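Worked example

This section walks through a single chain of length 107. The input is the sequence exactly as stored; nothing has been trimmed or padded.
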Amino acid sequence: MSSEITLTEANFDTEVLQSKLPVLVDFWAEWCGPCRMITPLVNELSLEYKDKAVIGKLNVDENSEVSTTYGIRNIPTILFFKNGQVVDKQVGVVPKSVLVSKLDSLM
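Given that input, the structure is written out below as tokens.
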């Protein structure tokens, strides 16, 4: 059981932009094969960083406004936020260690 948050246009501002903790946002879609490959890593991170960071997933098909705002053209794309600002980005499938080091750098 993972503890990542399902992000939408309705809660993005509150959960991501106003968060006091660093935030990892996984932009994904149901039909995206690589997105399904990275999902287990995001799930693990949501448990490992519980209370240290916010880990969320945003479906690009259902939330196109947020995706457009951040210029998401390829998925999976992971954006890292700190204090409401994008501070790092990862496009495509990468080893978990890459995501861990990016998250750790925000702590």
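What to look for: The mean pLDDT is 96.
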